[in-house]
Design a protein that fits this description.
With 171 residues, the protein is mainly β. The chain is built from two helices and eleven strands. The longest helix has 11 residues. It is globular and about 50 Å long. About 8% of the residues have low confidence.
Length: 171
């Protein structure tokens, strides 16, 4: 087999990371400033999960109006990191470090004819299975670290008649 054939065979058998993309799942907004934590799901062009740790988080730097992104620091991972990811049947179950009691389940689907992956994130909100939309964290600045006053979780129930749902979690 010639070298071009070997290269093509390698590309077919071992998909490259460039063939995957990140789909925005949800955001965490904070009272401290306009910056947000954006959670993404790594999928391929058919919206299939492509990793055993497919959920990741980055800062969306809206405070300085640049809209650039930055990785979470080691300290940020303590509050906003993703933990305990389990992939099965193109769904990933996971928790957020600061809300480990609330499990999330995410996937993406490819509606026919669209070519665009649509994210799906479910969690329990007020005792109902709901599509998660966003999380808001209200803090009070402290001497060494901020104190969390409450966390609001927003979504829409997935029942026959979808309704907005909200749950306030106080530490």
């Amino acid at each position: 087999m010639n070298s071009i054939g070997m290269i093509l065979l390698t590309l077919l058998l071992f998909p490259q990371p460039g063939w995957s993309k990140d789909v925005l799942l949800f955001v965490i907004q904070r009272s401290k400033n306009a910056n947000e934590v954006h959670y993404h799901l790594r999928v391929d062009d058919r919206c299939t999960i492509v990793s055993d740790k497919p959920v990741s988080a980055v800062w969306k730097l809206l405070e300085d109006r640049s809209e650039a992104t930055a990785p979470l620091s080691v300290f940020d991972q303590i509050a906003y990191g993703v933990v305990d990811q389990h992939v099965a049947e193109n769904w990933v179950s996971f928790s957020l470090k600061a809300l480990e009691q609330k499990r999330l389940k995410a996937s993406a689907k490819l509606p026919p004819g669209t070519g665009t992956c649509v994210p799906i994130v479910h969690t329990d909100i007020q005792g109902q299975v709901a599509a998660l939309e966003r999380i808001y964290v209200q803090t009070e600045e402290g001497w060494l670290k901020p104190k969390v006053l409450y966390v609001d979780v927003f979504g829409t129930s997935v029942e026959a008649t979808p309704t907005p749902v909200r749950e306030r979690i106080t530490p």
